[in-house]
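Case study 2.
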Amino acid sequence: MLEFQFAAIQLNRLSWRDFITQPNPVAAALMAKMNIKRQERPQVKAECLRLLTTLKLDPARMQLISGFVDVYLELNAAEEEAFKATADKMGLTNEEVYMEMVTSWERKAAQKTREEIALNLLRRGMIVEDIAQITGLNIEQIQELQSQLSSNLSQEVP
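Prediction:
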């Protein structure tokens, strides 16, 4: 018989400030899920990234953890501006690692936007080749989206 013993940790009850100096990539990631006041969100995201830039992680780990932070600390436009200002004050914008993380986030967001536009155009019945020209996606990507759309529609119909 297997028996597991573990302690449950409620991240939303922990203060992110207690982990700001921990040289641990997990701490950097989990800070994004801790007790954060709304107005502190841009600062916390900047602190998470500052911590990540000091850890000298390999690119795969860096991308995984920075992706986690980006998902769980998704900022609105005003918060994004405050985040950029905070990162700049910290000197992060001069760090190559920081630039790689932010560029990766921007690429993912742009790709998601292009895919959403393509899906909307497919729903309107536009030709695949025209959608490719408009969105910059290749025909195979659009056909895959079309297949997903068709699959979703067939599942919705009783």
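Residues 108-158 form one domain.
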